[in-house]
Design a protein that fits this description.
- The protein is an alpha/beta fold.
- It has twelve helices and six strands.
- The chain has two domains: 119 residues, Response regulator (Rossmann fold, 3-Layer(aba) Sandwich); 82 residues, Arc Repressor Mutant, subunit A, CATH 1.10.10.
- The two termini are 18 Å apart.
Length: 224
C-alpha cells in the first residue's frame, strides 16, 4: 500500500484529488493539509511514501515545504501538483529534489502513474512538463552535452549501463530484471550515480543521461 499525504489550500481540489486516489486500491491518503507548514507536520507524523504538494499555498508554499521534507525525510517522495506550468516552478521543484511534477489539468491517470512511479523509486513528469524541460535543454545543447559527458566519465561501465536504463524510464525492479541482478544492487548503483553526477534525484540523473546522448529526449524528461 502506497501511503500518501495530500496538501492543497483548496478544499474542493483536495477532495477531488482524494477521490481520484481512492479509486486505486494500492493507494491510501493518510493525511491532508491546507498549507505547507501543516504538510511538513503531517509528513513528519505519518512518514508517508509520497507527499503531493500544491505549489501555491499560504504561509509556507509547496516549494518551501518540499525543501523541508527533503531535508528532514529524504526517503519520502515529493510530487508537485499545480495548475501552473511555468518553467521557473519546474526548475525550482527539480532542483529541490522533487521526484515528480504534475499539472492539475492533466489526465487523472497521470496522477496515479506518477504516485506509483515515485513510490517505486522512479520519477515522473507530466507530458506537458516534459516538453518544457526538453525545450529548455535544446538551448545551449552543445555546452550541456559536453558538461554531461564530462560528468558521466566518472562512472564505471556498469554504472553507465544503469544510468542509461534509468534515463529510459525503468524502475529499479525493471533495471534489476534486465541486468540479471538483485534490486538492492541497482539501488546501490543508483545511489553512487547520483553522488558522482551531483544529482539530487533520478530526474536530474535522467536529464544528464539525455544531455550526454545516452538516451532519447522523451525518456530522459519523463521517467515513469
Amino acid at each position: 500500500m502506497i501511503r500518501v499525504v495530500l496538501a492543497d489550500d483548496e478544499a474542493m481540489m483536495r477532495a477531488g484529488v482524494a477521490a481520484i486516489l481512492a479509486a486505486d486500491a494500492g493507494i491510501e491518503v493518510v493525511a491532508e493539509a491546507s498549507d505547507g507548514r501543516e504538510a511538513v507536520s503531517q509528513v513528519l507524523a505519518t512518514h508517508p511514501d509520497v507527499v503531493l504538494l500544491d505549489i501555491r499555498m499560504p504561509g509556507l508554499d509547496g516549494l518551501g515545504a518540499a525543501a523541508e521534507i527533503r531535508r528532514l525525510l529524504p526517503a519520502t517522495g515529493v510530487i508537485m501538483l499545480t495548475t501552473f506550468g511555468e518553467d521557473d516552478y519546474i526548475e525550482r521543484a527539480l532542483s529541490l529534489g522533487a521526484g515528480g511534477f504534475l499539472l492539475k489539468s492533466g489526465d487523472p491517470r497521470e496522477l496515479l502513474a506518477g504516485i506509483h512511479a515515485v513510490a517505486g523509486g522512479a520519477a515522473f513528469l507530466s507530458p506537458k512538463v516534459a516538453q518544457r524541460v526538453i525545450a529548455r535543454l535544446s538551448g545551449g545543447q552543445l555546452a550541456r552535452a559536453a558538461a554531461a559527458r564530462e560528468r558521466i566519465a566518472a562512472l564505471t561501465p556498469r554504472e553507465r549501463e544503469v544510468l542509461t536504463l534509468l534515463g529510459s524510464g525503468l524502475s529499479n525492479a525493471d533495471i534489476a530484471a534486465k541486468m540479471f541482478v538483485v534490486e538492492g544492487t541497482v539501488k546501490a548503483h543508483v545511489s553512487t550515480i547520483l553522488t558522482r553526477l551531483g544529482a539530487k534525484n533520478r530526474v536530474q540523473a535522467a536529464i544528464t543521461a539525455y544531455e550526454a546522448g545516452l538516451v532519447g529526449g522523451d525518456a530522459a524528461a519523463s521517467t515513469p
